[in-house]
Amino acid sequence: MNKIVLRATGLTRKFLEAPNELTVLNGVNLTINEGDSVAILGASGSGKSTLLHLLGGLDNPSGGEVQLMGESFSSMQERDRDRARNHSLGFVYQFHHLLQEFDATDNVAMPLMISRMDKSQARDIARTVLKKVGLGSRMLHMPSELSGGERQRVAIARALVIKPKCLLADEPTGNLDGAAASAVFDLMIELTTAESMSFIVVTHDESLAARCSRRFRLIQGQLAEVL
Ligand SMILES: Nc1ncnc2c1ncn2[C@@H]1O[C@H](COP(=O)(O)OP(=O)(O)OP(=O)(O)O)[C@@H](O)[C@H]1O
Ligand SMILES: [Mg+2]
After folding, report:
1. Fold of 4-225
2. pTM of the entire structure?
3. Does residue 94 have a pLDDT over 90?
């Protein structure tokens, strides 16, 4: 029996922009098992980022629910929700959001230090993860001294350093050229597969989506599996 990491049931999200009510998601159901790699496709404005935010517990649905490891976000206190998110989910965005005044190692060590690990131990673990993303020779570089693809690798290392159950990525390669995008995408699949981690990625790129084990398309507020 597969272990369910994330489950969305009857998920709706409406935005109340007078005079119109905008229904972006309208009854989305999705089950993510341990080790799944899932691509979410859809036109601009179809609600992909909205869906990813809800799956990550960063936004509240208008209806339905999201369960992380069997527990509904809506039933958790704010503090427990933050803790569940920080322990179980890693996020990667289109723009890396690295801290400019810290080197690559500190950027990756940051989530560990935030959860109170001491700095030298956190930096040790950060170095191990930086080697895994192929940046063993860039560990002391500042973000401004790295290429776009390298920065995105640091962002991936930072997301993976806490060993999340699921990596959520919103257009993680949207800012990179073809070859760098391809390499960064493959790296995310390789690293998540190696750790039996689930991976949910929003992408416009059909050829990248084809590398995931499952694909879904958001159309008119509903999620359809692409078979
Ligand atoms: N906070 C908000 N308030 C009002 N409307 C919103 C809000 N957030 C998103 N929307 C609307 O919801 C729709 C879906 O937005 P979303 O960002 O999820 O699209 P997307 O599929 O990620 O698009 P893109 O591919 O361009 O990133 C859009 O029409 C957007 O205008
Ligand atoms: Mg988006």
Report:
1. Rossmann fold (3.40.50)
2. 0.94
3. no
Sorted by sequence, the CB contacts under 8 Å of residue 166 that are 6+ apart come out as 5, 6, 32, 88, 89, 90, 197, 198, 199, 200
d(CA 106, CA 217): 37
**Tokens representing 37?**
């790699």
| Cβ atoms of 223 and 42 closer than 8 Å | no
**Which pLDDT band, with edges at 50, 70 and 90, does 1 fall under?**
low
Residues with a CB atom less than 6 Å from ligand 1: 15, 17, 22, 24, 42, 44-50
Q: Ligand 1, from 16, 50, 217, 220: best to mutate by most atoms within 8 Å of Cβ? A: 50
Q: Measure the CA–CA gap between 14 and 63, rounded to whole angstroms.
A: 9
From CA 187, how far away is CA 181, in angstroms rounded?
A: 10
List all residues 6 or more positions away from 121 whose beta carbon is below 8 Å from its beta carbon: 112
Q: Is 101 exposed, middle or buried (0-12, 13-18, 19+ CB in 10 A)?
A: exposed
Q: What is the mean pLDDT of residues 99-105?
A: 98
Between the CA of 62 and the centroid of ligand 2 the distance, in Å, is 19
CA of 139 to the centre of ligand 2 (A): 30
